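**User:**
My hope is that you can spare some time for a protein that puzzles me. This is the protein in question:
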Amino acid sequence: MTDHRTERISEALREELSELIGYELSDPRIGFATVTDVQVTPDKRHAFVRVGVPADTDKQQTLAALDHARNFLRRELAARLELFRVPELHFEADIATELGGRMEHLLKRVKKGRPRE
């Protein structure tokens, strides 16, 4: 069970990371990656950041670029948020975005009356 403070920290990290990754990182390997979810551990030392990567972008390359920018992101978060300790960031690809594209394709096929292959 997560406490209210952990949820507030997760939401604040998600908002700030979305802005930082979307507008302030200039690495072309990141592309149009979006932060979909942030889960902070109960001890508030680690944050697992789920990143939605478009299907036409290389997922491994995007995650490698975000790992490379990890220290910059933590430094910017420390300046923007008033936290005692900024959690260590761990980036992972969000599979829900991949499944969402597949689901959309299947729903279009059902709408047209075509069965699944």
